[in-house]
């Protein structure tokens, strides 16, 4: 069957959470001082905030009636500092594919849909954060043409 990309519904909530939880588990394993293990990573209130708004969207990838991937997007404004050029950009809160369907082009299709969504809203760019340990994600984003813009550095102050 063909992969279908569509806007998420409330009925997709549990499937979306299951996919995002897989990534959360990877993050909790790699950085237990930063990430915790949760049954529901996405709160229902936050999920609902994406419905019926033109500046937010959840796109799901569906194969054989099963949600196998998700992209959560929202439009943002640059901070209001004199030193920064005012701009609108699209932010990817989540882009995840079920482990059983990774490396099959689903992530690329979701990324392309996210790009189209952002362009339709005249975003200056599409941005996201990725953690340094997540080499697979960094390789994926590089493969679709994303580039590192900045880095967050840290010093651990507790032994």
3D structure, described in words:
The protein has helices at residues 13-30, 44-48, 106-120, 135-143, and strands spanning 4-7, 56-63, 66-77, 88-97, 126-127. The longest helix is centred in the N-terminal third of the chain and has 18 residues, at 13-30. It is an alpha+beta fold and 159 residues long. The chain has a five-stranded mixed sheet with strand order 1-2-3-4-5. It has a single domain (4-143), classed as Aminopeptidase, CATH 3.40.630.30. It is 30% helix and 23% strand.
Report low-confidence residues grouped into runs of 5 or more: none
> Per the principal axes of the C-alpha atoms, what is the gross shape?
globular
The CATH homology group name: Gcn5-related N-acetyltransferase (GNAT)
Which fold does the CATH topology refer to? Answer: Aminopeptidase
- Sheet with most strands: 5 strands, mixed
Helix count from the secondary structure assignment = 4
Please report the total strand number as a whole number.
Answer: 5
| H and E string | EHHEEEHEH
């Amino acid at each position: 069957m063909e992969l279908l990309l569509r806007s998420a519904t409330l009925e997709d909530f549990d499937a979306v959470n299951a996919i995002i939880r897989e990534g959360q588990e990877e993050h909790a394993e790699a950085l237990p001082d930063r990430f915790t293990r949760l049954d529901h990573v996405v709160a229902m209130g936050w999920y609902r905030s994406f419905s019926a708004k033109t500046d937010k969207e959840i796109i799901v990838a569906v194969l054989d009636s099963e949600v196998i991937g998700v992209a959560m997007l929202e439009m943002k404004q640059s901070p209001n500092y004199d030193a920064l050029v005012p701009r609108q950009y699209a932010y990817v809160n989540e882009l995840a594919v079920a482990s059983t369907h990774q490396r099959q082009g689903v992530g690329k299709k979701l990324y392309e849909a996210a790009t189209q969504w952002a362009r339709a809203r005249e975003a200056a760019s599409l941005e996201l954060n990725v953690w340094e340990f997540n080499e697979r994600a960094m390789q994926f984003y590089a493969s679709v043409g994303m580039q590192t813009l900045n880095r967050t550095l840290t010093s651990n102050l507790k032994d």
